[in-house]
Recover the amino acids of this structure.
């Protein structure tokens, strides 16, 4: 069994709080990180899609990783996204993240100068060869416009190139095949689902954990779900997922917004209403949710006993 399974359980993709003048809100950041660790999460993923990675300058990325490592202080593993358009930029981010103390690195397929499967495979092989840390492939085709084939991921895992996969593809059939093939290969990779609405099904299929953005808002439920799955208590797993899905309606009660503003905007709005973030500020050019949408999210939180 691979030592990469140290990266298992609930590993939320941390939402990055901003001050009103678009600086890192260190106080809110520390409050949120400690809140999730105190809830029992098994790791934290910084500079993912929820963490504003593509909005951040190199200097801001460095600051986020430094502060993350300082706040976590070794209590849980720190995974850091090194997401960028092409291999050389990704390598730069990787070296800087490791210098700052990251425990594992998370990379997507290259994007913008789109290549084929051969280039994607070589991309991950180069990262593995030149970055001395466990490497996770981040499958998020909605953002990078390439679906990582499960056969490629399984092969790279079997060869020791990949330590794991963070699957946010929404393709549950592909993920299911990957879980089975990974098991046939001796389970070399930690397989984590980012499909937070159906974590219960992924765990039943054999996933090694989840990377649920909603755990920024309600971490305890995902922790309870993971523990119940470890005990084989699938009725409790489903019950927790059903409850969390009611909270997830913060995504669909809003109107007039879409994409990043609707998803991460809902997280930030909820965390602000709950007193975790000092502001719901979004990175430019994305605006915080309107007063009407804020009230709609408040209603969901009240109905689910989070306010």
């Amino acid at each position: 069994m691979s030592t990469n399974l140290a990266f298992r359980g609930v590993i939320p993709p941390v939402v990055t709080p901003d001050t009103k003048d678009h600086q890192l809100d260190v106080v809110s950041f520390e409050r949120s990180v400690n809140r999730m660790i105190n809830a029992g999460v098994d790791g934290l993923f910084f500079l993912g899609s929820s963490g504003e990675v593509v909005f951040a300058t190199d200097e801001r990325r460095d600051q986020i990783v430094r502060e993350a490592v300082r706040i976590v202080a070794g209590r849980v593993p720190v995974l850091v996204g090194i997401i960028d358009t092409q291999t050389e930029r990704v390598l730069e981010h990787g070296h800087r993240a490791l210098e700052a103390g990251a425990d594992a690195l998370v990379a997507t397929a290259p994007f913008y100068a789109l290549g084929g499967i051969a280039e994607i495979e070589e991309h991950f092989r180069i990262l593995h060869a030149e970055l001395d840390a466990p490497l996770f492939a981040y499958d998020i085709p909605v953002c990078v416009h390439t679906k990582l084939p499960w056969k490629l991921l399984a092969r790279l895992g079997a060869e020791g190139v990949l330590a794991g996969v963070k699957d946010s593809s929404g393709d549950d059939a592909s993920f299911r095949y990957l879980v089975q093939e990974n098991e046939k290969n001796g389970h070399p990779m930690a397989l984590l689902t980012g499909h937070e609405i159906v974590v219960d099904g992924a765990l039943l299929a054999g996933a090694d954990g989840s990377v649920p953005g909603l755990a920024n808002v309600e971490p305890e439920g995902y922790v309870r779900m993971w523990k119940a799955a470890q005990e084989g208590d699938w009725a409790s797993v489903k019950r927790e997922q059903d409850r969390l899905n009611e909270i997830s309606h913060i995504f669909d009660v809003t109107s007039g917004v879409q994409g990043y503003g609707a998803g991460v905007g809902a997280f930030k709005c909820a965390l602000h209403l709950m007193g975790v973030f000092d502001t719901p500020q979004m990175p430019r050019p994305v605006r915080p949710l309107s007063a009407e949408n804020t009230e709609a999210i408040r209603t969901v939180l009240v109905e689910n006993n989070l306010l």
Notes: The chain has one domain: 9-231. The beta strands are 9-10, 44-46, 78-81, 104-107, 135-139, 164-167, 190-193, 209-210.
